[in-house]
Amino acid sequence: MRYIRDSLSQIFGNKPRRPSKEQQPPELLEIYQGKKGNLSKADVEAVRHEHHTGCCNKWQRRRWITLILVNVLFVVSYYFDVQLLEGALTASRFVGFHMADLNSALQVALAYKHIVLNLVIGTVTVFIMWLLLGGRTFCSWVCPYHLLAEWAEYLHLWLVKKKLIKNHTFNRKVRGVFYVIFALLALISGYTVFETISPTGILSRALIYGPGVALIWVGALLLFEVFYSRRAWCRYVCPIGVTYGVVGVLSPLRVKYNAEACHHEGDCRKICMVPHVLDLTVRGAAFDVNQDVGADCTRCGMCVDVCPTGSLVYEFKGLSKLL
Amino acid sequence: MSDKTTKKPKAKKKLSPKRKEQSRREFLRSTVLTVGVVGVSLLGVLPVVQGTSIRLRPPGAIKTPFDEQEFFASCIKCGQCVQVCPVNAIKLADLEDGFGIGVPFIDARAQACDFSCDGLQCVLACPTGALTHHLDYPADTRMGFARLARPRACLAVQGKGFKGQARGPDYEGLLRYDEVDRWNPIQVADYPYDLELCDLCVRQCPIEIRITQCAEKAKQAEASGDSGKVARVAEQHGNECPPKHAIALEPFELPNGEMRMKPVIKEGCVGCGVCEMICPVESAAIVIDLDKTADTPGG
Known about the structure:
The complex is a heterodimer. Chain A is mainly α. Chain A folds into two domains: 2-56 and 256-306, no CATH class; 60-246, no CATH class. Chain A contains 17 helices and six strands. In chain A, a hairpin with a 2-residue loop joins strand 2 and strand 3 (97-100). In chain A, helix 4 crosses helix 11 (199-209). Chain A is globular. The two termini of chain A are 25 Å apart. In chain B, 34% of the residues lie in helices and 13% in strands. Chain B is built from nine helices and ten strands. In chain B, the strands form five sheets. A two-stranded antiparallel sheet of chain B has the order 1-2. In chain B, a hairpin with a 5-residue loop joins strand 8 (247-253) and strand 9 (259-265). Chain B is elongated, with a radius of gyration of 29 Å. Classes of the chains: A mainly alpha, B alpha+beta. At the A-B interface, strand 1, strand 2, helix 5, helix 6 and helix 9 of A face helix 1, helix 3 and helix 4 of B.
């Protein structure tokens, strides 16, 4: 229950809740206490160094390959007429089965105010799929804009490091505001207003049906992210992320945090696109020894890759008991 | 620990105005971002209001001629209709169409819908009903209406024939020619004509072709002498076979008393655009209107 409440609160822009000492179990307090003074900076640095000289982008590699494969499958299905995955990311047919992007379907339902059976089938199928796979998993493992934004982010971070630019943050609550505005606009105007500027839809269609003027908008967004604000679209605007985030609240696929070995050095928070979900890795901020990362997490696995102590791992709730 | 606690409140007090300023700026930035992004998304209203987004739509598109609001709303912009079309007639609109971005349209002069899929594949592919499923045959559609917009340019009106490739050697458009290949459309450039009087718009009209086919079928059934078969054929096709006439060449008298022929659009016209596509003069003498005009019968 607490997980659901806290996840939703974070998705709509609230700061992560911190526990009081009374809320934390004694084992956890003991762990925190035990680390005090026992971890020199040099020790932490040594473990970190060792971890980083090994491999450490296993999940990133898998994710990029998956993302590219899914999008290539759309393109290939059309160009070679193999009919595996027809349509675009907004709605498609996978070997004949209807699939509909939840946010696009929602916008259409609000604007059109009728829903045909095919759309219901497609929406339910996709809902169940992302319910099992983590919700915002869509963002980091499928959305083509995410990959471009990820590269833009590297450029941004490099420029910040060189002190050439500064990152400007926005209030995270603004994404919830956007969500409501776009829902109301669709409902009142009767047009799917968000679709005009959705880089996910624009990119997906551009890949499949050829480039168009709309790519200028996507380019502008990327420039904004490179030079002004890190990951601005995904962090502060995109309603698709909110929709899938809410689905992810009920998902058994999560990233699990274990406080025992954690050095609290914060490498995970530095690379994370939604660092508020990793607030629990701050020393003293966890509610329990084992705690699941909130549903605004895109399950991208960057923290799993970067964590030098293996304190963050993927988990499928209920499955670990079976295995 | 003790010196930390004494330091903390001091630092907090000192930072307070700066923090306040920071959060004030963040709030301002967030407001500007909201206004900016919503503003950009609302720019999409302009092409809709100006009517520049109105185009020929695929069969079954739910719309009234100059109001496409429901069509824009119901279309999920996935392009599955684009993918199933055997002649690649359907294209997706771009950003300049505002709310119509990603919505399918047909540029009939470049490539019209010739119904060579027979089964209205685009309608079947549509996941949201933006192309309505209340449609069984090509003849049920109403995409627009043909109109002889430039009668003086029309070869038939001039009494001329036509020889050669209808749209020149470089034209890439496709049509299905039953006598060449029943299942696969071929390039119009690969099918040269030699006509004493140009009747391309009538000859290639998918509705007129269908009427001929229906007549042949009925004739065959009749010839077999099996009354059951005649009834079956009639039943099988119901009202659709034969459909109502869409276009015909009809005689008219010039002021000098000379008789000529001209294409006349009938009420069976579905506005598929094949006549506009095949018209060999530049620009086409016959075009598709989205609304009935005075030039068309009954309009």
